[in-house]
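Tutorial handout. Part one gives the primary structure; part two gives the three-dimensional structure as C-alpha cells.
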Amino acid sequence: MTVVGPFGLSVRDQALEADVQAGLAAVEEGLLDATKSEVPFITEAAQHLVRAGGKRFRPLLALLAARFGDPDAPGIVPAAVVVELTHLATLYHDDVMDEADVRRGVPSANSRWDNSVAVLTGDFLFARASHILADLGPEAVRIQAEAFERLVTGQILETAGPRDGRDPVAHYLDVIGGKTGSLIAVAGRFGAMMSGADDRIVDVLTQYGERLGVAFQLADDVLDIASDSHESGKTPGTDLREGIPTLPVLRLHERARLLGAEEDRALCELLASDLSDEDRHREALTRLRAHPALEQARRDTVRYAEDARAVLEPLPECDAKAALVQLCDAVVHRAG
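Part two.
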C-alpha cells in the first residue's frame, strides 16, 4: 500500500499511483499558472490559498474517474484545475461571510488583507476557471454553470434558513448537497466525461461524487467541533462562533425538541448566546464534544459515505474502483 496526496488515499497498484501522482502534479502546475497575473499583488493574493496546500480532493476524484476511459485524454487535467479553482474561489468568499481568521493553517485572505481583496480575488479565480472551461466545450460550460447555480442556491438557502414547517436537518442536507455535493459531483463527472467513458459510467461517478460530497461536508462539520486547528487547518468552532447551524448543532436541537432534557435545552441556550466571548465559546465546544449529538452526526457521515460506496457497485472491478471505495473510508476516518 502507498499513499497518494495529502488526503491520504492508499493505492495498491504502483502504475495507478504513479499516474495519479503525475496528474496531481500537473494540476498543481495548472493551478499556479492559472493564478498568475501581470499585477504582482493579484498573483500573491490569488496564490495565497493555492500555496497553503489542501487535500486536492476534487482533482483526485477527477483523476480517478478518468481511469474508466482514457486517463491520458487532454481535457482531464484542465477540468480538474477548473473544479479546484472554483472551490478555492468559494473559500475566499466563505471566509468573508464567516469572518474567519485562519484557512488551511495560514491567515485567511480577509484577515491578511481585507474583505474587499478577498471577495475580488475569489472573483478573479472564477474568471480564470471560466477561461479554462471555455476550451473544454459547451457541454462542460453548461455542466459547470448548473453546478455553480446549485452552489450559490445552497449558500442562499443556508443564509435564509428553513421555511416554516421544514425539518431543519432535511433543509441542511439540501443546503450542503448544493454547496458541496454539486461541485464534487462535477469532479467525478468531468473526469469520466473527459476520458470518454460511456454515459452509464459518467452517471455513476456523478452520483458517487454527490453522495461523497455530502459525507465530506458532514465530516467537516464534525471536525469543526471535534478537532484542533492543526488537524482541521482552521480555527475550531468557527461555524459555532458564527451561529452557522451545522449538523451536530441541528442534531442537538432535534434531541432537545424530541426529548426535552434540561441539559439539552441548556446547551441550546448556550449556543444561542454570544460566542465571541472566548470562555463561553470554549465551554460550548467542550460540552458539545461530549454530547450524543456529535456521535449522531458521525453516524450520519458514515451513512452518506456508505451510500456513495453502494453507488459504485455497477463499475467494473479495478484498482481505480478500489481507490474510490477507499475514499469513502477516508471520509469516514476524518469524522472519527
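Part three, for discussion. The longest helix spans residues 199-226. The beta strands are 2-4, 9-11, 102-103, 106-107.
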